[in-house]
Amino acid sequence: MAALRRVIKLVKGKQVTDGAGVNLVRVFGRDDTEDFDPFLMLDAFDSQNPADYIKGFPWHPHRGIETITYLIKGHIEHSDSLGNKGDIYDGECQWMTAGSGIIHQEMPKPKPHMLGAQLWLNLPAKDKMTKPAYGDIKAGSIPVVDEGGAKVHVIAGEYLGNKGAFEGKYVKATYLDVELFAGQEWSFTDDPENTLFIYIFSGKANFDPEDPDELIEERQAVLFGKGEKLWVKAVGQDMRFILLSGKALKEPVAWRGPIVMNTKEELDIAFKELNNNTFIKDNGIRSSEKMDKIKIVGLTGSLREKSYNKAVLNAVKELVPDNVDYEVIDLSDIPFYNEDVEKKGLPDSVANLKKKLFEADGVLVSTPEYNFSIPPVLKNALDWVSRGSELPLYGKPIAIMSASPSMLGGARVQYHLRQVCVSLNLIPVNKPEVFISNADKKFDENGVLVDEMTKRVIKDLINALIDKINELK
Ligand SMILES: Cc1cc2nc3c(=O)[nH]c(=O)nc-3n(C[C@H](O)[C@H](O)[C@H](O)COP(=O)(O)O)c2cc1C
């Protein structure tokens, strides 16, 4: 009889708060790297209370690992520094190779039940700086092997001749999601040398037919010793567990926060690069789905040459996706609104402004706050285009930002501008709110936006504007 894999370690995990305030179970992590090699960390989610997770995991970097997020139930919205956006729904998986570096965010959305896990898989030393990539694994592409007593979802690797939905390029791990019905037995055979563990979401199990009273409860990871065959029996109730198997790397692990390398020096380099904005090495991630060309125009209430808000609008040029045609409109030639002038015919500058706004699918504003309100340059331009029978902004989406050297970042102008939006029937994007405070510290001497986190939120706002444009189209 094939040598049975024996239980060598049980880890219950700890209830922790991570990201911006997500309550989850850290099943194993940095204290267990040797035992679980090549698997670095496992976080399990099982909550019927959205307050546990909706704060999500806002912008953070990764390097040197793969993160594998699998949801049995739930919804996580994902976006990254390159404008990629995606969703993980029930029965879906995202296999992200961070490789040389990526900055991303993962935001769970409220659902009656969020059940799933995020696994960190180490990359071999020679592949740590590989090109970042995504594997989007849709539910329909995951083969389900129905054996009567068990249903096995083959996410990665191979099971009974069934190839999984995904094949890892580096550590070629097997990832199965197993539904084992009460009283049923199931076994799994693979390379006896592989590291193999399961995490039990629900149910109770026995792993040794010669010792049927030895039961292992749910919500823990079970690590098995070397051996040809894993044997499991669901005792008393149905079981749901994930099984991971892979060849240990046996390489040194240097781990700081979301970055896992082989040496401290490599970590120091990574963090230095994050500070001086040279962290992202490769833009080779799959691009977001192709969309029709979208036209967005940028407006600001500042006329001064070295305006921070102008600089924000200029920074947007580098942040918009390829399918966006983006132009900043200069308002310096627009005269004061005067009904008498209007009656005689629109000044060329105003006619030109109206034409550009008509052609636009959406508007992006970055404006200063003057005395807690809208600078006259911007208000005046909006007043001009609010008149007459042809209204270029009517029903169009608008995204609003403000930059100021103050601590509030011009928060108040945004609410005055929103009030004006009601009159013009502009549709403002509500989230994220982008207040660029302490603006004098976020640009270099040439007026180039250098603050990475600010770029990230601006990118989010652009994406929200694009979503709104597509929704209204
Ligand atoms: C007339 C005037 C009023 C201002 N009022 C405010 C204010 O209410 N809140 C604020 O944060 N900054 C205020 N400021 C400071 C501006 O935020 C600062 O000058 C900023 O750099 C202007 O934006 P810009 O760099 O895009 O021109 C005011 C500046 C001026 C000229």
Describe it.
With 473 residues, the chain is of the alpha+beta class. It has 2 domains: 7-275, Jelly Rolls, CATH 2.60.120.10; 294-472, 3-Layer(aba) Sandwich (Rossmann fold). 19% of the residues lie in helices and 35% in strands. It has helices at 33-36, 264-275, 308-319, 339-344, 348-359, 376-385, 411-424, 452-472; strands at 7-11, 14-18, 22-28, 39-47, 57-62, 65-73, 76-80, 85-88, 92-97, 102-108, 114-122, 133-137, 144-146, 150-156, 158-159, 162-163, 174-180, 185-189, 195-202, 205-206, 221-224, 229-234, 239-246, 254-256, 259-261, 294-299, 324-328, 362-367, 397-403, 427-428, 434-436. The strands form 7 sheets. It has a 7-stranded antiparallel sheet, with no helix packed on it. The protein has a 7-stranded antiparallel sheet with strand order 2-3-4-11-6-9-12, with no helix packed on it. Strands 26, 27, 28, 29, 30 and 31 form a 6-stranded parallel sheet that branches. The N and C termini lie far apart (65 Å). Bound molecules: flavin mononucleotide.
